[in-house]
Design a protein that fits this description.
The protein has about 160 residues and is α+β, with helices and mostly antiparallel strands. The chain has a single domain, classed as 7,8-Dihydro-6-hydroxymethylpterin-pyrophosphokinase HPPK (Alpha-Beta Plaits). Helices cover about 30% and strands about 25% of the residues. The protein is built from four helices and eight strands; from the N terminus they run βαβββαβββααβ. The strands form two sheets. Strands 1, 2, 3, 4, 5 and 8 form a six-stranded antiparallel beta sheet that branches. It has a two-stranded antiparallel sheet with strand order 6-7.
């Protein structure tokens, strides 16, 4: 097996029992061979961005992964599919969305995967939970640019 790499994954859902789906997805991530859950943020509520439908529930988890980033992405897609994820159109409401935000200090730009996630720095629903578990990746300047997006930390 490979040496573990620290990865951060963003989770979001706005259909069905979104909070329950996120909690189950986090549990499922901890069951993936070669992956261990290191930390998880609180849940956050946010209005859809470039989308429609009910508010989203979001979180970020820190993983230790012996999988490559593309292998991890395949696992994330399997968990999404098990949760009933459909992709009828870009930014459609969803039962579950899992995105690799950061994978070690890696930079990937391919047709299926871009790391760091290309829009993470523009989204409060990513930056606030990330700041909670990995403050070294965010700055007050970055946070101040997104705070008006109205993300609310849940219990």
């Amino acid at each position: 097996m490979r040496e573990p790499v620290t990865a951060y994954v963003g989770l979001g859902a706005n259909l069905g029992d979104a909070a329950g789906t996120l909690k189950e997805a986090i549990r499922q991530l901890g069951l993936v061979e070669g992956v261990s859950l290191a930390s998880q943020s609180s849940l956050y509520r946010s209005a859809p961005v470039d989308s429609s439908g009910p508010d989203y529930i979001n979180a970020v988890v820190q993983l230790q992964s012996q999988l490559t980033a593309p292998e991890l992405l395949v696992c994330l897609h399997r968990i999404e599919q098990a949760a009933g994820r459909e992709r009828p159109y870009r930014n459609a409401p969803r039962t579950l969305d899992l995105d690799i935000l950061l994978y070690g200090d890696g930079h990937i730009s391919s047709a299926v995967l871009t790391i760091p996630h290309p829009r993470m720095w523009q989204r409060a629903f990513v930056l606030l939970p990330l700041a909670e578990i990995a403050p070294q990746y965010t700055t007050q300047a970055r946070l101040s640019h997104v705070l008006a997006q109205g993300v609310v930390k849940l219990r």
